[in-house]
Amino acid sequence: MSAAAPVIGYAGMTHLGINSAAAASERGFKVVCFDPDAKRIAALARGDAIVREPGLPELLARNAGRLVYKREVSALAACDVVYVSPDVPTDDSGASELEALRGLIATVEGALKREAALVVLSQVPPGFTRGLALEESRRFYQVETLIFGRAVERALHPERFILGCADPARPLPPALAAFLGSFGCPILPMRYESAELCKIAINFFLVASLSAANSLAELCERIGADWAEIMPALRLDRRIGEHAYIAPGLGLAGGNLERDLATFLRLGAERGVDTGVVEAWQANSRHRRFWALERLHESVLSRLDDPLIGVLGLAYKENTHSTKNSPALALISALAPFRLRAFDPAVKVEAAWHPALLEARDPLDACKGVDALVIMTPWPLFKALEPEAIARAMAGQVVIDPFGVLDGKAALAAGLDHRRLGAPRS
To answer: What are the φ/ψ torsions at residue 85 (nearest 5 degrees)?
Structure first.
């Protein structure tokens, strides 16, 4: 990267900000990382990646010479492009809580040099970016498409950049164009509202695929079909594709998909748009969330007076420490009358979750003496478990394995009663 290369800034060093900053530094740019939280900045400065993402600590260490961590907003005055990038929390209804983001944007605007571009990277509802005070020629919105557990990969190798602008026909500021161009992917400028809605549109298609997969997988369980046998045929159909979200799951989790459905419901109600399909997706998610509980009830809870249940996985998905809308925590809450043993490699057990929940030392310790085992998060660590070892540790034979972490044939050979989403009972 030449001496004239733009300096890139990120304001808000949470999951989105730190992964994006790391990717920018890997492309050779000097990056200023600002956050008003002194503890967060100190942790990053001493090499703590803060969030759990495969490859992130190594990426930050490799580019330590290009990354500057500051809690003084004045440090952003050296930047040619500044991304406002904090994670935006959602409330219990899935609505975004935007007050902190607005405050951070106002703080950052006051520190920018005259020609610097400001880019909102945090997810916001349609209309947000146009309502900001900064002059439109310097104000942009960029769609983030990071995935928890794959954030480094997504930040380093984006499929495209979706950029909201006041005038999509106007050339981008040279510094912003140079930065985005360094990634070698298409840049799609569009009006602010189109870009903001594009993020929702992407997630809509993901939710539609997931809902279809969940419904069809449930039917497979009832008629003797196996959804795992059907998926390869769908992936070879060009209208669906090899990367389609067609693996069944336990309802929506993590917060981002739920946020976009809630935003559409609000906007649809305000403007008279039919929202029935979104309401159906939400109902489908609620229905499938308790698949594991239903399997537990029919196989163990209705038959034993005081069963001990083992739970492997507490995070809402693998390779993250996030428990936002985690199906595992919903299951644990529903199992309040029963004794539980649980383990997750990234999440510590909290006493407030359950009155009789013990934290196991490791995956096999979570299996020790249990009448049933539920594998709620498909961590790679769990995939390495031998079904025979699980069978020896358990008191019962029932293993509820929604995502097929264990090899079904090996589980059957070990004498386990193995249950998987989308498959008939063996």
So the answer is: -135, 30
